Amino acid sequence: MKRKNGYYDVFLQTCARYPSKIALRIYDNGIYRHYTYSEIYGACEYISQNLQQLKFSRGVIGLVSDRNIIIPCVIAAAHKCSTTFMFLNPSQDIQSVVNSVNIKILITIKEIEKNTIFNVCGKEPEKTITIFNLEVSFYNLEDRGSYHSYKYTPDHSYIATTSGSTGEPKHIQVPIQCIQPNIDDLTRMFEINSSDVIYFSTPLTFDPSMIEILLACVNGASLLIAPEKADILFGDNCEDSVTFWQTTPSKFFQNSNADIKNKIFSANSTLRVLALGGEPLSGINRLRELKDIANKTRIFMLYGVTEMSCWACAAELDLNRILNDREIPLGNCLSETEIIVEPTNKNKNTGKIVLVSKTRKCLILNKSVGTEETNSLKFIDTGDIGEVRNGTIYYRGRTDDVIKRFGQKVSLQEIQTTIMMCPRVKSCSCIWLPKPMLLVVYFASETLNSQELSDFLKCKLEEKHWPDKIIKVDSIPTNPHGKISKKILQQMFEKSPQTLPTLDSLRVLFLKELKATLSKNFTYDQVKESDFFSVGGTSFLAVSMCNKLSLACPQFGKFILPYLLSHNRKIDDIMQLASQELGLKEIKSKKRLRSASYTESIASGSQKKTVKIMNSQNPMEFILLWTFDTGKCVDASPTLFQHKFNLYITVGSHSGMIVVIDAISGTCQGSIKLKSRVEASVVCYNEAPLSTPCGVVGSYDGTIICFTLESCKEKWRINIGSMIKSKGVCCKGCLYIASYDGKVRCIDINSGHVKDVIEVSDKAISADLMLAKNKFILLGTLSAVYASINTETKSIVWRGTLSSPVFAAPALYDGDKYVIIAEVNGTIHCRTVEKGIKIWKYQGAKGNIFSSICIKELDKLKWQMTFGCHDNKVYSLIVKNFQPSLQWKAELSSPIYATPRILSDKLLLTAANNGTLCILDSDTGITLTEYKLPNETFSTPAIYGDYIFIGCRNDHVFCIKYVMNI
Question: What is the Cα–Cα distance from 341 to 241, expressed in whole angstroms?
């Protein structure tokens, strides 16, 4: 690939050869958009023209971006205009990299509708252009100089950064001709052609991403950008389904067994090649068990290092012949590469793995102190251990995976391999903590608990390999490159409780809280053969008691709750189960210096885990109690309702699914499926003429459905022919619901019959309705109209016009005398409910408002009003004697659409769009603690005591508990 303009020449040749072929496919909310090679060629030339207008010496061009449709165009343009490019993660310290690598030009790429902010050395961009709904900005840093004088190769190249999983991160300059042998070999090995759909899944800063880009570009194939969800990657539309997937084993095994079996490895899967690399493969048994006998997917294991431009060897795995993880070979060397195992002890067959190449020479820029030749890599000590058997090399762990424990050598890799022989384990990792001298195992499993895994290991391993602690988690944490991160595991352990209670101490704790909760006096022996309800307990009391128990022992309180609620579990049986789950049984050991071997589970059952936030002195922590998968994004806000002693939540999803979930246990009570997405919140109603509690909600195609809340049975449905995104209100047996045709319909709640249609505006109503004094309905519209409807006369009492649309729901205060209306331009208005008389106005917000207003009464004629803003800030106003003034504003990490919620007298919860939940001090606005959801959220949380319920764009509803550690 050594050509005049490097990668640009290859890009140009492919675009000329396959102009009408699809180069990029992008999935967005159920819709695929396609871009041909001729289209992205035009984008490349447009970028090149703008880049050439900047006067700079040929040097490093930095690209700050996530994966998107113009990445191939941008790197081609970079090679046309210069010699070297480097990907930077938008979240990393950009200025530090600019200084160390001496970047001349920085290009940032972001979606137009996202308010992403880049701090580029305090500079404004020289120019900004728009391509395919992406904003591309150019920064000329030519005059900034550099703190380091790296020696660069003059060849066309890219700079990759090692993840740091096996040492300190390094900047590696990779000439394009060094990665060319990989592309040629893998094209032949994987039989890549122009009909392939390659999943573009690897982070840009991880060098295998270049393999995906170049395999597609060289062969005229497609790159697919889509969420890593099996039902999307292998959906009904085979044209857009993945045929080639390169990923790390850890990332792949985060898919559920059901998704792997029924989608990825199904009999009719489109996946031709699965290439796993970047870390050892632990889970060959799982692959074999989940792969359909008729499935045609070829599975490869790749091995290599960034210092030699990605992959050094590859092995196709025959699942029928490889019995366990120790039998997975490194495979055959790729072109211009040689692997040597250098013996380091008496065993001549085992030693360090060294990679050799005379031509695939890269530069470690961090070590550039001499000539290019001295900094080039011909011999690479990988830090890995290999074993040679019958001419085949097998991976045997890292050199630092063999530790000394009580005077005996112990292999962490051997422990991990043994754990993965247990069929119910999904993934695992073993870490050695030298300071406390503890051997700790983390594992993920859907059905196995810590005690069972401990028993399994004692049957399979010598005593010297027995772990001190075995900890169950939902999934093994990975670094940004998708590899298992032992650094994160170590931090998790340091933050987890270090002392375990005894069974006796738990009994004492339980009895103390039981007596306090029931206000009764008895001994443990008097109640141990009874269930919780027979001694006077209720569902509500169980939740209350377990909340208190969780303060003393979080694992214990959350574990026993579902058993207390089961009606058929004796209290003593529950204590024994808790003892086993928390690993409180002591096992005597003759040879060990420690007197006991403990196992511990910090997560059990349905996706429960403890996440400590900030430092060990933090007075709060979040506990993820459960999640529920709705199939697509959950933008709607959950609605809580209580019936008798049971607490439920109900919420709709973009999949059209509406679910009712037991709020405490996370058990799905039932679901209903509509044909279009549900973004509105559910209205819950339990008054005459209804005989049972019901929920009502509208959807995108105009369908309104009424269903029973306890059994989730449909009562009625109608279609009004207009989109619904607004939550309705119920009043005196009627449902009032607004739609995008600007009308509010009055519907009989019992029959679904439309009784009246009230015309409010000529444009859409998006905001939720608000009922005041059980008589007036307040609302705002996208045509900037705000109004009040009298439910008795079914007519508009008053209306007004603002200067911008209203997305936020109205808010009421002072006994429903006054209504607050926030318009999108940042202005907040106060009107009287009955006549719409102007009371006050606030214009201090510096961004758009989509959040509604959260109101708390502080004193007579004094209120606190908080709201989120698109400028990333939460605003708190004090309204005293009907005069608003700014109390504080707090900056979050992204815009805020969700409405803040009151947690207590002193605590406020708010959710930023990027999925960060923040607890703020309501007096000062100081952020006390944070919790990060796995994806964006536009859902307003529902609060019940210290329980938080919120929807997320990773398709799940979350139940999270916050605990005060004081």
Answer: 40
Alpha carbon distance 955, 915 (integer Å): 13
What is the Cα–Cα distance from 952 to 909, expressed in whole angstroms?
16
Say how far apart CA 223 and CA 235 lie, in whole Å.
16
3-state class of 562 per DSSP? helix
Q: Is 853 helix (H, G, I), strand (E, B) or coil?
A: coil
| Radius of gyration over every alpha carbon of the chain, rounded to an integer in angstroms | 31
Residues 873 and 880 sit within 8 Å (Cβ to Cβ): no
Cα of 39 vs its chain's centroid, Å: 32
Taking alpha carbons only, the member of 698, 704, 767, 694 closest to residue 733 is: 694
Cis bond leading into 689, ω under 30°?
yes
Cα(816)–Cα(811) distance, rounded to whole angstroms?
9
Residues 640 and 647 sit within 8 Å (Cβ to Cβ): yes
Distances (CA, A) of 148 to 60, 94, 159, 368, 376: 14, 16, 15, 9, 18
Q: Are 303 and 332 contacting, i.e. CB atoms less than 8 angstroms apart?
A: no
Per DSSP, 126 falls in state S
Q: Which amino acid does the sequence have at 320?
A: N
3-class state of residue 892 by DSSP: coil
With the C-alpha atoms ordered 200, 204, 210, 213, is the resulting torsion angle positive or negative?
positive
Task: Identify the three-state secondary structure at position 715.
Answer: strand
Q: What is the pLDDT of residue 452?
A: 86
Query: Reduced to 3 states, what is the DSSP secondary structure of residue 622?
Result: strand
pLDDT digits (tens, 9 = 90+) for 607-658: 334 333 333 345 577 888 889 999 999 999 999 988 766 788 999 999 999 9
587: left (phi over 0), alpha (psi -120 to 50) or beta: beta
Pairing outcome for strands 408-411 and 425-433: unpaired
Tell the residue number behind the tokens 């699942």, with chain if given: 319
**Would you state the pLDDT for residue 424?**
80
Structure tokens that stand for 349 in this block: 């067959």
Residue segments in the chain with a per-residue pLDDT below the cut of 70: 1-3, 113-122, 143-150, 163-169, 345, 366-379, 406-407, 436, 495-501, 540, 544, 547-548, 550-552, 554, 583-619, 644-645, 964-966
The amino acid present at 403, given as its one-letter code, is I
Order of strands across the sheet that contains 609-612: 609-612, 620-629, 956-964, 947-951, 942-944
Residue 124 CB contacts under 8 Å (≥ 6 apart), including other chains: none
949 contacts 942 by C-beta, under 8 angstroms: yes
Angle at 321 between CA 318 and CA 326, to 5 degrees: 95
Query: By the 8 A CB rule, do 792 and 774 touch?
Result: no
Q: What is the C-alpha separation between 227 and 233, in angstroms, rounded? A: 8
Residues 6+ apart with CB under 8 A from 324: 284, 285, 417, 420, 421
CA 934 to chain CA mean position, Å: 2
Q: What tokens were used for 451?
A: 């005690």
CA atoms of 904 and 883, how far apart (whole Å): 25
Q: Which two tokens stand for residue 600?
A: 């511990």
Eight-state DSSP code of residue 722: S
Nearest to 156 by CA among 80, 213, 53, 223: 80
564 Cβ contact list (under 8 Å, min separation 6): 532, 537, 542, 545, 546, 574
For tokens 């701090």, name the residue. Answer: 119
Question: What is the length of the chain?
Answer: 966
Dihedral sign (CA 455, 461, 462, 466): negative
Cα gap 601→311, rounded to integer Å = 37
**What pLDDT, on a 0 to 100 scale, did the predictor assign at position 367?**
60
Kind of pairing, strands 392-398 and 310-316? Answer: unpaired
Structural element, H or E, at residue 532: none
Answer for the pair 836, 798: CB distance below 8 angstroms, yes or no. Answer: yes
For residue 321, the SS3 value is coil
For residue 873, give Cα distances in angstroms to 848, 888, 918, 952. 11, 10, 12, 20
